[in-house]
Amino acid sequence: MNRHILRLLWNKKRSNFLMFLEIFFAFVILFAVFTIVTRFVRMYSTPIGFDTEQIWAAHFNFDNLPYASDTTAVLDMKERLKAEVAALPEVESVSAIGFVSPLANGRWQTVNDDNGFEMMTTLHWVDKDFRETMNLQMVQGRWFEEGDDQGRYQPVIISKKLYDMHFKDRNIKDSIYTIQGENRIIGIVENYKYSGDFTEELPATFLYQPPGSMDISNLVLRIAPGTPPAFEERLNQTIADVTKTSDFTIEHLKTTRAVKARQVWLPMAALLAICLFLVINVAMGLFGVLWYNISKRRGEIGLRRTLGATRGEITRQFILEIMLVSLAGIGVAAAFAVQLPLLNVMDVEAINYYIAMLMAAGLILALVFICALYPSRQAAQIHPAVALHEE
């Protein structure tokens, strides 16, 4: 039976080649789309690691201050700014942080092999109130405390991502490592995916800075629930009075998070819509091919029924024929697709490619089976006498 089907496929190679090409290109397109979708979905599945509800961020350009050349005045202003913002009754907590702000586009990272292995980490300068303000979750150790910068080694806190990559199953609390100079690791936080939901979580290192440090350039605030929108105007006025400038912006992290997510969801929805259009066209093509085959092979069907073939055998023959052509198209396309993770063509985890290949192959095979089932059963219903008479 299998040899007979293979011979039939070879004899109809011209017509089957068009179906082969259709399956081949359908797999390639689905594979490309599913790779992108899988990558972003897997990124989204990891926790962001901090709160955005009721969290505001104030961004400054202290280099443009009228008194920017007076370092002492700038440092005093930064300390006073945090104190006066924290004194507002609508502000539950406030933290002074460095250049790299949550959900901003900035990044500061370092790569070194000073510890005996190559280590990459992003750097985040924060004060003692950052964990409380952003609701970071500690895994080991503690957060920064007042006076932590007075010791011999600068204290740092690392993310669990960095710990898992380089220090797995090791007790690193109070260990000395070279990250930004010689540092003493005092704690580990669970997650910190500071660039947004649909971004890869990078290994992170937090370095302690007091509010008046020159490295401080942003504030993050936790606002009390139920605070009226009018409070933003009051906050603006307070900041302007302290800094003596209006060169700053205030953003709501909840809104920023939604905007950044929408920038990914909309293109993904467009790509999936293209896939749906493709699937519909492939289904229509398969139906057309099968109906055409049935109309051209009624005599063959009638002869096989006369020789004793059951309706189930006729159905299985047609389904098997189209499944074999589909498997050939998928196999050739997959042979090209698998080169991407093997050669590391793009900076994408290999697991994303393999998941996309399985999804594309599974969807195409399921679609082919569904499209082949009804016409094949219709072919099996042909009465042998009628078919032979027409022939």
In DSSP terms (H or I, runs of 4 or more residues), the helix count works out at 12
Major beta sheet summary: 7 strands, mixed
Report the count of strand segments: 11
Counted up, domains total 2
Low confidence ranges = 386-390
Roughly how much helix do the residues carry, as a percent range?
Answer: 40-55%
Write up this protein.
The protein is of the alpha+beta class and 391 residues long. The strands form two sheets. Strands 3, 4, 5, 6, 7, 8 and 9 form a seven-stranded mixed β-sheet that branches. Helix 3 runs antiparallel to helix 6 and helix 7 runs parallel beside helix 11. The C terminus is likely disordered. The chain starts with a helix and ends with a helix.
Keywords:
2 domains; four-stranded antiparallel β-sheet; 12 helices; 11 strands; 16% strand
Secondary structure elements and pairings:
Elements: H1 2-11, H2 13-44, E1 55-60, H3 71-86, E2 91-97, E3 109-112, E4 119-126, H4 130-134, E5 138-141, E6 154-159, H5 160-166, E7 176-178, E8 182-189, E9 204-208, E10 218-223, H6 231-243, E11 248-252, H7 253-296, H8 298-306, H9 311-337, H10 339-343, H11 350-380, H12 384-390
Parallel strand pairs: 4-9, 6-8
Antiparallel strand pairs: 1-10, 1-11, 2-10, 3-4, 5-8, 6-9, 7-8
